[in-house]
Amino acid sequence: MTRQHIRRILASGGALLAIGTTLAGCGGDDPSATESPEAKTTPESELAALVPDSIASDGKIRVGTDASYAPNEFLDADGKTVIGMDVELFDAIAGKLDLDVEWVPSAFGDIIPAIQSGKYEAGVSSFTINAERMEQTQMIAYFNSPIQWVTTKGNPKKVDIDNACGLTIGVQKDTIEVPDLQERSKKCEAAGEPAITINQYPGQDTVTTNVVTGKEDAMTADLPIAVYAVEQTGGKLELLGEPYGNAPYGIAVNKDETEFAEAIQKATQAIIEDGTYADILGKWGNDKGAVTAEQVQVNPSTP
Hints:
Blueprint: H1 3-9, H2 13-26, H3 45-48, H4 53-56, E1 60-65, E2 68-69, E3 73-75, E4 82-83, H5 85-96, E5 100-105, H6 108-117, E6 122-128, H7 131-136, E7 137-152, E8 168-172, H8 177-190, E9 197-201, H9 204-212, E10 218-222, H10 223-232, E11 237-254, H11 258-273, H12 276-283
């Protein structure tokens, strides 16, 4: 897929609305699983041998993902095929393990419970690694992203990141940006200022659309998502201020699947070492979030 093709998929705020409508039909209670059309990496027998038989027996990994978080994971123009940076990265990882990937669109907050229940064998959805998630799953680090604010072009509401008291800010539910906004709102109230109205939505596509249409004064998201939203909305949005913080992303697997987690760790290191990782990040414009092979750890310590 070329960069030009990617741009055509979300070329306007109207396209974002259309994708939000499509996702509502494809995700949730009765999601339709798809396989990515991207080419896979060449299997490595030593890595494939690390995959537990319970995972390898059917030759595929069933993965839950919130397909509204472009450019990391989102629906292609056909409304059903899941594509994106994370998709290509994990397809490459699975290829090293001699496994196919079955991508299943799901609500973001439903993915980890589905991993715990065994419905999904992995979750790949820009999950920020934190203590709570590491208590629920095994998490394998693969990318880093700070938080970025976005507002309507020209910032007509004069949004100030350090003083957003009384404003309405959109955010995707269950993301790391929610507690950040909640803490900022508490500081507003402690200073005698009105709280921040924090509107949480199941999908990032809805958040972005609401900023474009003026329903929200601004939004916060991971840096790749914020940059992509600005690019795809034809100049209707702009980045606000500088990115801050550090949100390490992790691939999630069942808490009991220690061997599987280690297999994914080593396969991730392999795609970094052979250059596949850098090629994928470069294609999606996310080079700055790259990690080294040594930083790919299972349940790493977090700040």
